[in-house]
Amino acid sequence: MVIVMAASATRADIESVVAHIEGHGGQAFVSRGVTRTIIGVVGSEAVLETLDPIGLPGVADTKRITAAYKLVAAENHTNRSTVRVGGVPIGPDTFTLIAGPCAVESAEQAMESAQLAKRAGASLLRGGAYKPRSSPYAFQGLAGAGLKILAEVRQETGLPIVTEVLDVNDVDLVAEHADMLQIGTRNMQNFGLLQAVGSVGKPIMIKRGLSATYEEWLMAAEYVAQRGNLDIVLCERGVRSFEPTIRNMFDVSAVPMMQQLSHLPIIVDPSHAAGRRDLVVPLARAGIAAGADGVMVDVHPHPEAALVDGPQALYGASLDELAEIVLTLPALLGRTSAAHRTDGVT
Ligand code: PEP
Ligand code: MN
Predict the structure, then answer these.
(1) What confidence score (pLDDT) does residue 341 get?
(2) Residue 8 confidence (pLDDT)
(3) Gap from CA of 314 to ligand 2 centroid (Å)
(4) Lesser CB count within 10 Å: N end or C end of the chain?
(5) DSSP type of residue 187
(6) Pocket of ligand 1, candidates 133, 161, 182: which has the most ligand atoms within 8 Å of its Cβ, to mutate?
(7) What pLDDT does residue 340 have?
């Protein structure tokens, strides 16, 4: 069962609902989103039968959720959610462009990439300080030094930062610097990490696992929500397939499917799907047309010299081409650009 609290519910109202649940032998998981708080209830059928929260102060509604995931299910939300990242919205009314290098390689490279992103009208900067590499001999990222560079670049450009956290031990440090923490495809089922990021009080982006089903992906989001954080953005980045000419198969169905199954925003990452820059703009177009709430792409000032994922990084000119599409195509679908919708807009 999920208990939906009214927007006007007070902390005391929430505490009394939790006490009601616990008093009847159930467990309560409070998740606070931007617009409302919902309380997930776990307990046996007998426990759920005895609960009667609807008359309690601050309770707007109760729902029996049939899906395996509860807090992130569409069933308990009449409207799709908007997540705010450093004031920038990602949600159903807007379209958000996120761009930046795959990895932070140096202060200069990060700043030049951010300037390309900004010039193209991106609202958020991406860039990995911790890189999940298939080979232990490959560049692993600048770690803490990379986070500092990102913070300096944010200071300089005003672009909030999205960056990956790989290890439970780094969660607090990454959360200190990042505006949104990214869970990469390889960690989508690292349940300890999901629980850890659920408690840091910053938005979380969850990239789809390399071969994850929609339900597995949403269960990963449920781990974060169950720890109290409903500010979650899903990111489709392609799944493993039998076709060797592309790195991953971009699953465009994931966009409308996630919107049917969940209230969470869904964005697409055509760079990591394709693995090659010539496909990035066409796949981005497909994602936008399918209804994605945003797109995240790799850009690099010198892709041929990139330490990670050079073949998929856009040159600045191609990012500008994508920016033109981002200005026109989402508008046809009734969205405004997130670049014009920062703090204070609901
Ligand atoms: C990334 O976005 O830098 C990344 C490593 O992506 P993925 O986890 O989707 O491979
Ligand atoms: Mn990459």
Answers:
(1) 43
(2) 92
(3) 12
(4) C
(5) G
(6) 182
(7) 53
Q: What tokens does 26 get?
A: 């159930």
From 227, 205, 201, select the one nearest 98 (Cα to Cα). Answer: 205
Cβ atoms < 10 Å from Cβ of 345: 14
Query: For position 343, what pLDDT does the model report?
Result: 42
Cβ neighbours of 140 (radius 10 Å):
18
Query: Would the CB of 272 count as within 6 Å of ligand 1?
Result: yes
- State the Cα angle at 284 between 281 and 290, rounded to 5°: 145
Q: Is the CB of 294 under 6 A from ligand 1?
A: no
Q: Is 270 in the pocket of ligand 1 (CB under 6 A)?
A: no
Report the nearest atom of ligand 1 relative to the CA of 308.
Answer: 3
Quote the pLDDT of residue 342. 45
Report the pLDDT value the prediction gives residue 36, as an integer from 0 to 100.
82
Separation CA 299–CA 318 (nearest Å): 9
Q: Which atom of ligand 1 is nearest to the CA of 182?
A: 2
Nearest ligand to residue 132 Cα: 1
* 316-332 vs 280-290: helix crossing angle, rounded to 10: 20
- Domains of the chain plus CATH, in order, are 2-64 (3.30.70.1140), 83-340 (3.20.20.70)
| Position in ligand 1 atom list of the atom nearest CA 235 | 9
Q: What is the pTM of this model?
A: 0.90
The whole-number pLDDT of residue 188 equals 98
pLDDT of res. 314? 98
**For 268-303, what is each residue's pLDDT tens digit?**
999 999 999 999 999 999 999 999 999 999 999 999
Residue position matching structure tokens 């979650």: 232
Tokens representing residue 170 in the block: 């780094």
Low-confidence ranges of the chain (pLDDT < 70): 340-346
207 Cβ inside 6 Å of ligand 1:
yes
